[in-house]
Amino acid sequence: MGSHLSDRFFNEGYHVIGMDNLLTGSLSNIAHLMSEKYFEFYHHDVSKFVHVTGELDYILHFASPASPIDYLKMPIQTLKVGSLGTHNLLGLARQKNARILVASTSEVYGDPEVNPQNEDYWGNVNPIGPRGVYDEAKRFQEAMTMAYHNVHNLETRIVRIFNTYGPRMRLNDGRALPAFMSQALTNEDITVFGDGSQTRSFCFVDDMVEGIFRLLQSDYYLPVNIGNPEEISILEFANEILKLIPESKSKITFKDLPADDPKLRRPDITRAKEVLGWTPKVDRTEGLRMTLDYFKNQIKN
Ligand code: UDP
Fold first, then answer.
1. Any residues with Cβ below 6 Å from ligand 1, and which?
2. Would you tell me how many other CB atoms lie within 10 Å of the CB of residue 290?
3. Whose CA is nearest to atom 11 of ligand 1?
4. What is the pLDDT of residues 92-146, one digit of tens each?
């Protein structure tokens, strides 16, 4: 997401500063920007005090492990970046008189008891479960962001991001789409967790960036879901990916469902439509093809 957002803002004519501790990110995703005069990169962990010289108009806080296997491996870093990192960047926004947009997540809804999820649903999160480190960090982030808005009149925006995919994901990221594609491309078994009846709704990265761009420019400070409401079961999704790679010899194999894995997930995007005039444009077939081309190249090189 960081590299795609950098591209978008850079192409709109902004001077962009990227900041990342590269815990899960990769410099290769911004290699094409590195020699640009109006792009700078700071290798820094936002959980520590953040110093930036000069003026800032906007801050976009997207720092965090976001793949379940990453935040299970790095629970403390995940909690710190959502809490201390958010506090540091809210402080920076205040000092610079900048507008700040924070990346929240559909995980604030936990294992939801309503489907689809709209922004007024409070969620069903297990605070001490393995996913709690991500979910609660993001819930704290939202609370802290609203507090800065209310107490300091800071210009804040909160996007609740649903499952997003596209080029520049890591092949070994662990999330369903990169896992299934890399398994299918290397003829390994496709690992479906549980019976695969759990659902997700996948949004192509370009649509996500457009929604975020519009939210940042809007004057709306309450959380907004951005995601593609087309819902699919994980088993169907695995089969859809297999169909895209007819030469694959992979078979589907079933593994244990991870603890607290949400059974249903689908965004209600009424608010994004009304407030931002936004709807996703790229359908799954088209988005999956573009992503597959990227992964095929990655495997070749
Ligand atoms: N999943 C799966 N096999 C994998 C990786 C994920 O069946 O190799 C399932 C996972 O249990 C979840 C869904 O796919 O139900 C989406 O998982 P992902 O890690 O992509 O993200 P999540 O939406 O859970 O944050």
1. 68, 163, 175-176, 179, 191-193, 198, 200, 234, 258, 261
2. 15
3. 193
4. 999 999 999 999 999 999 999 999 999 999 999 999 999 999 999 999 999 999 9
